Amino acid sequence: MTRKQWLLSGFVAFTCLVPIAAGAGPIENYSPVTAQRLENPEAGNWMLYRRTYDGQGYSTLDQINTSNVKNLTPVWTFATGVVEGHEAPPIVNNGVMFVATPMGQVIALNAKTGDEYWRYKRQLPDDLFQLHPTSRGVGLWDDKLYLATTDDHVVALDAKTGKVVWDTKVQDYKKGQYMTLMPLVVDGKVIVGGSGGEFGVRGYVAAYDAKDGKELWRTFTIPGEGEPGHDTWQGEDWKNGGGSAWMTGTYDKDAKTIYWGVGNAAPWPGEMHPGDNLYTSSVIALDPNTGKIKTHHQYHQNDSWDWDEVDAPMLVDLQRDGRSIKSLIHPGRDAIFWVLERTPTKINYVAGWPFVSTDVWKGIEPESGKPIVDPAHKPVVGKRVEFCPSLWGGKDWPSAAYSQKTGLVYVPANENFCGGFTGEKIPLKPGELWLGTKPEDIGLKAKPGADHFGELQAWDPTTGKKVWQHNFPKSQLFGSVTATAGDLVFAGGTNDRNFRAFNAKTGELLWEQKTNSGIMGMPISYEVDGTQYIAIQSGWGVDAQRIQDALATNDIGIESNVPQGGVVWVFALKK
C-alpha cells in the first residue's frame, strides 16, 4: 500500500457543515438524567456507552428471546446522510433516541417511530485531518447531552432543541489532538480522553463541569517529572510518549472509582522509548473528583506493536477459585484474556490466557501478571519483524459483552491475522504521523491455510474455558457485541452487511438481516410502550474498511467492496 493509498483509505479532511439543521422539534417531554438514573438505569433505556457504568453491554429485557427472535423484523430506518464508520450506539432516554455520526452530527429521533426532532451539525475546520473521523456517542446529564468532537472540543447541547449551551476547547487539533469517544458523565462531571497517539502527543483524561464546561481536572497518562511512574521513561521520551485514552471508561459507583484504558506508547518500536513506559497499554483507576490515579495494571510493557488497550475493562463480580472476586475483565488487543481483581488500593492479577494464537508472548509471570516477550517477534529499528496477531490485535476497540444469565463473556475476536513492519527513526513534526515506520511498510497477511478470520467467542471467566465459537470464513469480525436476558447475543462486524442474533448458551445462529452497509456500531436494546426494540447503526469505514482492503490484496477470496452510507436500523417482533 502506498502512502497515498494509506491516506486516502479513510484519512480524510472534512469540509465545513452548517451548525444546525432544522427538524420537527423541540422535544416536549424530556426526562432529565440524574445520578440515580445512571447508577440504576431503567431496563427500557440505554443511556450509557454500554448501558450501565460497569460496561457489561447487557440488557435485562427478554421479550425478544431464543424462541421468537426468528420473527424479528425492521420497523423503521433512518438515513444519517453521511458516510464513514458509524460506531456509536444509539442512546435512548424514555422514548427519545440520540444518534451520533461521523462529521460531528447528532440527530434526535422519536425512538418508536423514527421521526426526527432536531439535528445538530458541527462546523468543522477546513484543514481538519485525523485517522479516525468518527464518533462513539453522546453522554447525558440533566437536560443536556455532551459530544466530544474531532476538532477537539466538548460541546453541550440542549437535549430538547439541539442548541449549543456551551463549547469548550480541550486541545489543539492542528497538533494531531482529536476525540472520538462518548463522554462519561459521573456526578455532573463530563469526562473525556483524547486521541492522537499516532502524532506523538501526550495522552490525558480530563473532566469538565456539566453546567458550564469549566475544566475541573486533567490527568496525563504519561507521568511527568516527580510523578509516580516517571522513572519508567528515559530522557525526554515522556513528552511525546503517546498513551491516548480514546475510549469511554467504566465506573464502580460503590468504590467511587473510574477505570480507564490507555493506548500504546509512541512511536511504535519499543527501543525508541526504553522502559516499561507507564501508563501506556494499561488500565488506570481514577478518583472522579480529583482525577488522581489511585492504582493501575499494565497489560504489557514497552509496547511495540500498536496494541492500544483503551477498551475499558468490564466490572463483574465472579466466584473463582473458591472466593468472590470483584473483577475487571478485559479481552485485550494483545491477544490475552485478562481477569484482574479490583480493590480500593490495588489491581491484582488473577489470570490471563491467549484467546487467539500469538507468537509474541512466551507466557505470563504468575505473580505480577507481566507478559514474557519473545524478542524475535518484537519490532526494532532497521529490521523487518513479523508478529501474530497483527497490529489490530486479537480484539481491537469493539467491545465484548457479559451476560448476567449465562455468566459468559462474548468476544468479537480475530484469528489467523499476522503483520509486521520495519522500525525507522523519523523526526517528529507536530500534526504529522509519527509511527516509527513508513505507513506503506505496514503489513497484514493471513496465515497459510487459514479457513476463517472472525470469531465470536464465548468464555467462562471463572474457569478460563471456551464454551463455544462461531467462525466467519470470509470476513474479520469488527463490531461490538451485546447480550440480553433473552439469552441472545447480537453482533454485526462482518463484510457481508449482516446483523445477527446468536443463542447465548450454544452459539447457534438464530437470525440474520442484511443491511445497507457493514456494521461497526454497537447493538442496543430498549423499550417503548411495552415493546422491546433492537437498534444498530450500519455504516462501514475507518479501520474495518482498512483491514478489508488489506485482506483483499492477499488474494484469498475476500470481498473488499463493502458499500458505505449510514443508516439507523430498528427491529421489533413481527405482529
UniProtKB/TrEMBL annotation:
Binding sites annotated in the UniProt record for Ca(2+):
E198, N264, D306
Q: Give the protein's cofactors.
A: Ca(2+); pyrroloquinoline quinone
Q: Span of the secretion signal? A: 1-24
Q: Which SMART domains is this protein grouped with?
A: PQQ
Q: Which residues form the Pyrrolo-quinoline quinone repeat domain?
A: 46-343, 475-534
- Protein's name according to its UniProt entry: Alcohol dehydrogenase
List GO terms (cellular component aspect). membrane
Q: Which residues bind pyrroloquinoline quinone?
A: E87, R136, T180
Give the family, as the similarity comment puts it: Belongs to the bacterial PQQ dehydrogenase family.
**Molecular function terms in GO for this entry?**
calcium ion binding; oxidoreductase activity, acting on CH-OH group of donors
Q: How is the cofactor bound?
A: Binds 1 Ca(2+) ion per subunit. Binds 1 PQQ group per subunit.
Tell me the active site.
D306
Which key words tag this protein in UniProt?
Calcium, Metal-binding, Oxidoreductase, PQQ, Signal
Tell me the domain of life: Bacteria
